## 1
Amino acid sequence: MNSPDTHEDETSLFVVFFDDMKGSMALKESMTTTWDERAFQKLRKEHDALLTQIITRDHAGEVIKSTGDGLLAIFYKPSTAVECAIEIQEKLHSHPHLSVRIGMDMGEVRVESIGGVKRDLFGRHVDWAARAMELADGGHICVTRSVYTDAFSWITKSRIAWKEHGLYRIKPGEPALEIFEPYNANIARPMESLRAEKLPIAPGPAQPRVDQAPPAAHRLVRSWEAVARDGRDFAEKGAGMMYWFRVPLGGVSYPEGFRNFLQPALANPRISKIRFVLDSSVPIIRQIWTELVCPLVEEWARRENRDFRLEQDEGGGRYLENATPPKSFAWVFVDLSLEFTPCFKLMIADPDTDEATEPEAQIFLSTAARTARLKDGTMQTVRIPDAVLRVKSHENDSLLHALNSVANQWDSLFT
């Protein structure tokens, strides 16, 4: 057992959270003049109590210390950290006196503990979280790219929107930070700009700008958020039949991924059939599909007042829409353990319609690991796409023909 005076140092990976009360010195002076200093101290205690309750609820995070007019805290998950920060700003949105600014970064930090209780944090990620906070106005949140990348992938609340502010240097000689702002689009607007030196971001090979890429027969897209945008574009502009062959289900098994990859295809009237070929040799695939993906499809259909009829058996299933023209969303479970074809999505013409379409595909090159919670409470590793090759028909007919041949191999199972 640690004695009360035992000092310990260790390093751990955390989301580092800073906040402070906007204009605290002026506010203290004003409240002291109007009432007395106790009024300001009461307001500060109200601030500390509200934030501590939200941060520590369900063991989401820990408050490390008071900074005088704010708090230093840690969170264990980026998505939870962002949701809690949004909740704090929602609670304070209409407060007559209290407005806070919040900043966050994520990385390995040195934790100083006394008697087993965390007392302070040290390291560059602590500094960067503080710098991110300095960029935020009262009522706003600034996070670095590391927080944004993971939080964006797992945020479950549709009201949370994001603004990409760009690259900023707060103090001369310090590294620049790429800043993103999460906000509740129902009650707030993001900041127009940040009060610091903004630097240009030169697109590099690791993070190409999808919206600036020149037309090409094939294009490599990397980083999850860029892949998500490309997946949405693929579904929104496509037509005909869409095949998903052994694609990583993590991309569609949680709300944010579903909204980017599958929902646009369901909503697109030019896509008549959506077909998934799923690997039955991996038992967890069936469970993820049944417990996570199908409920998202059903929730979307109810929200959009779409009338789908479910038909299923051990080999697969389908949702058939009672509409004209009809739409079908189907899946089959087959043993793909000996199949060496890459994971891909394919768009081809539907012979049952007159809709003309150019064949194209997305070939999944790599994935990143994430976790998903199933109905029984267990956490399972899922894969989300973070690099794809976008292939169009001109100059790549042979590759698209090969992918179409793979799709045709299983096509009879859908009829």
## 2
Amino acid sequence: MLRSALVAGCATALAAAGFAMAAPAGASELAPHHMNAHKAAAAASSAGNLLYGGGNVVTSPTVYYVYWGSQWGTSSVTNDPSGEVALQQSFFSHAYGSGDTFFTSQTQYCQGVATGTTQCNGAGTAVGHPASNPLGGTWLDSSGKAPSRPSDAQIAAEAVKAASHFGISGDNVQVIVDLPHGVVPSGFKTQYCAWHDHTTASNGADLPYTNMPYITDAGSGCGANFVATGSSGVNGTDEGITIVGGHEYAETLTDPAPSSGWVDSTGAETGDKCAWISSGQGASSIISLNGANFAVQSLWSNNFNNGAGGCVVSYTSASNQH
């Protein structure tokens, strides 16, 4: 089992593409490895298209947020200095239907085809694209304080607790464990911005989940002011919230149980291959989702450029993407 992590970096590192793959700590897991952003960009671009690994994809996506810890507030979220909760909910609440041509690039990937496939071409069962709001629920778990430096196991346990609260499980859900301002799990800011993985729900089913620290605590290291906002109305200091959130969501869609879904020959996922591109094809940008503007990074499309692949921010069809 591998874990995908969106790598953090200094301002100069963010000026180029980069990715990092990391694994959970523990004797049964592979050791984490992180790469310099510039070197990572070269490795990702030369690794070619994503390959199907034989596992599941998300065919009917629904997102659930748990705000972990009384640091957020006791009966409602009152301690959220950057307004991350409202922005996260708005982002996913607009990511559906014909008004979203961003996440649609991931619907070219599928499950139920031969291992090593790069082009589904209508075969198998495709990654789903929600017809309506994919935000299934939110929950403030203020039963106690979140640890100031939570372990991987504690984050996974909170995801399982949230899944039980919502009554959900299986690869079509994504539980996002939101950590409060000031909570810094090991590696956040210095090695990664967020990561996704999977665990086992209380009913024994698979459970994809995401470790989402308080992104603005990392400043430019995790996307603040990465994209010129112009007249979009986007707050530059908050850009990382949706850049990182979109990265992890897309990777969960295509690889909910890392790395059994879609990864390239180096283990990079769809978001890893396109992270922190500042100019040219696939540059991070401001997009509109159903009339609301958000900062996002591009995502990898295998069928871009006549099947050579590349990073895109808009996808209407294989012949209409950029």
